[in-house]
Amino acid sequence: MSRPPVALALTLVALGGIASAAQGAVNAELGQRVGNASLGAVVNNLGGCLLVLVGLLALPSMRTGLVALRRSRLPWWTYLGGLGGAAIVVFAAYAVPVLGVAVFTIAQVAGGSLGGLASDRAGLAPVGRLPLTVPRLAGALLGVAAVALAQAGQPVGDLAVGLLLLAVAGGVAVALQAALNGRISAAGSAAAGVAVNFVVSTPVVLLVAALAGAFTGPSIRWPDGWHLYTGGLLGVGIVASLVVGVRAAGVLRTGLALVGGQLAGALLLDVLLPQGPGARLPVLAGALLTLLAVLVAGRGPRTRATAPEVDISVAAEGPPEPDGRLVP
Question: pLDDT per residue over 291-309, tens digit each?
Answer without folding.
Answer: 898 999 887 654 444 443 4
